[in-house]
């Protein structure tokens, strides 16, 4: 190497060192004046609330997909149900929306919220007796609550729903996880549900929105329901979780009457929710085929599942309307299984 080449090499090394120094100085200055940029922001649980597609999508790389997921949740029949312009997309068999059960697009506590759900999958599901994915759980709703057929797991619609649920499940404070999980608990009366009492409660608290005939309210057959039907041909089928009195009572207690009850300030008592849930589920609704295949291990079947077979000798009527405590006591004594629904 001659002198000129040596000088050039030293010059290149000095330039590299200078560049590194500039980067280090910039890093130190940024750390000094904006230390938060290098730390994940801690969320104050007191001020935290679920994300909203109206205000919280800025800068989100999957914003379009998440927004479409929200549309599917809130306008289900128009995209994948009877109101879809594309006949091949009409997989949901009724005109309910996902948010008829998962209120406020899955962001309301005590209403089957989606907040945190993504983080709980895969999970064991007794109905299938195996570990299941979130996609499979969504298709369980499609087949039962929506009384239809499964969404292809690789479809844009499935990916959008997953993206939306995942987005809602991010950065949830630990203190808020349980609040947004499932439904509120109900202390079950140790009696058979009384349908006449349930009817009286329904007429007092539910008729205004859902109608005396339980068929809900919508402008016409081509529009979404303002208030969904609770029984009849255009609602969840008899294989849905909401067709179980205990599950329905939990949902009702934390959410009904609509816009009045909340998870921490219910309007109806546990007993009232119990009786009116039984009344609602006493009416005819679509029948799901092959329900006998549910819960391959019959010991894991919820005590309020109104269809057999069961691993006990209690009547179908008691499995539907209670009292449920004797059935729960039987499973704990015979199999060591504590059941709450």
Task: Kindly describe this structure.
This protein has helices at 3-33, 63-74, 76-80, 103-106, 134-143, 156-168, 174-177, 195-205, 207-210, 245-255, 270-280, 316-321, 325-335; strands at 123-125, 130-132. It is mostly helical and 341 residues long. It has two domains: 63-177, Orthogonal Bundle (Cytochrome Bc1 Complex, Chain D, domain 2); 195-335, Cytochrome Bc1 Complex, Chain D, domain 2. A two-stranded antiparallel sheet has the order 1-2. A hairpin with a 4-residue loop joins strand 1 and strand 2 (130-132). Helix 2 crosses helix 6 and helix 8 packs across helix 11. The chain is globular. The protein starts with a helix and ends in a 6-residue tail after the last helix. The model is unreliable at 34-40 (pLDDT under 50).
Number of strands: 2
Distance between the termini: 84 Å
Read across the widest sheet, the strand sequence of neighbours is 1-2
Which class of secondary structure composition applies to the elements?
mainly alpha
- Secondary-structure element order, as H and E? HHHHEEHHHHHHHHH
Uncertain residue segments: 34-40
> Quick one: CATH class of the largest domain?
Mainly Alpha
Radius of gyration: 26 Å
The CATH superfamily name of the largest domain is Cytochrome c-like domain
CATH architecture of the largest domain: Orthogonal Bundle
- Based on Cα principal axes, name the global outline: globular
Helical fraction: 25-40%
Total domain modules: 2
CATH fold field value of the largest domain = Cytochrome Bc1 Complex, Chain D, domain 2
Determine the number of helices (DSSP H or I, runs of at least 4 residues).
Answer: 13
Q: Beta-sheet strand percentage?
A: under 5%
